[in-house]
Design brief:
The chain has 2 helices and 5 strands; from the N terminus they run βββααββ. By secondary structure, it is of the alpha+beta class. The protein has one domain. A 5-stranded mixed sheet has the order 3-2-1-4-5. It starts with 13 loop residues before the first strand and ends in a 5-residue tail after the last strand. The model has no long low-confidence stretch (mean pLDDT about 95).
């Protein structure tokens, strides 16, 4: 796994949160690598996963109403798909990474466990 981001906070663990924000990437790094929205290849995610994360964001962006954000709709199964993508991110990153996302049922932020 190759990380191409500069280390900004060497004493903190690398963190990733998978979530949607209009016109942004789905992967948000913090901790060791500062705070930024990235495509995912910068932290070594596979091309297929990066492509699927981009498609997830693009689907929501296509329905987002910038003039009236509260009236915007989400694609069917949007949170469930985002959770599944976050589980794939967790599976591709080493044990030292903290991966979080929104639970599709409770809508709470959750940390995903490393499965072995």
């Amino acid at each position: 796994m190759t990380v191409t981001l500069p280390v900004e906070n060497p004493d903190e663990p690398p963190r990733v949160d998978v979530h949607y924000e209009w016109t942004q990437h789905a992967v948000w790094v913090s901790g060791r690598y500062g705070i930024d929205s990235i495509a995912g290849h910068e932290i070594g995610l596979s091309p297929g996963l990066v492509r699927d994360l981009t498609a997830w964001v693009d689907a929501a962006d296509s329905l987002f109403n910038a003039n009236d954000p509260l009236s915007s709709q989400s694609p069917p199964g949007f949170l469930e798909r985002g959770f599944a993508l976050a589980e794939r991110v967790r599976a591709e990153l080493p044990a030292g990474w903290v991966v979080t996302t929104t639970h599709p049922v409770t809508k709470a932020d959750v940390e995903l466990p490393l499965r072995g």
